[in-house]
Amino acid sequence: MLIMDAAVETYDVADFALWPTAAPGADRLLVLSGQMSPLEVGTAMAVLTSCGQGDSDDPAPDTEAGIRRIQSLLSVDLAIAPGGILLLDTATGGVIAPGCCFGLESWRDWLSLMNGEELWLGHGTVAHVERQRTLARVWPDTDPPAKAPIELPLAELPDLLQTAHDKLNGFLALAEQWASRYAPALAPALITKLDEDLNIGAPLEDHRLRNPS
Prior knowledge:
The protein is of the alpha+beta class and 213 residues long.
């Protein structure tokens, strides 16, 4: 069984203290969904608001530091976040994690496989993708090299990505609740920013596989 989730990387928020967060997982990946705990949502918001932050920002945080962090995110032209699509094959245990420099904002790029386009998923996660008529073989970038790829039937890709999309919308609803508590004056602008820049709200385009060649 194949599972696709949208996830963020939590490496840079291990010592975050501006609002309550959850302890990071061993793989430093946090799946986004409508089933997250309040602390997990806090962790996700710490990651998402890291865009626009410098190493010297708020060296001595005060009670308004969290608000300033959110305001900084709202000031950038495009919010980006470390992460992307996490692909898991439960039958083999194979995993394709989000790659460096890909970003959660690019999660819809997986649909390019339906058009026969080359898919780039960042550094250090995928060695290469082999596309055949109705199948994509995604080879993990591992050392030693993986013995087998994850085989992704292209006919299943839209539904797999739709599941990730539904979970992202569920997360956005939780993020709105979180923002209403921790930054009520900024909540509408923050949720709009995340929705638009991370391409969450708009429906997925119909890329059903027809007459494969």
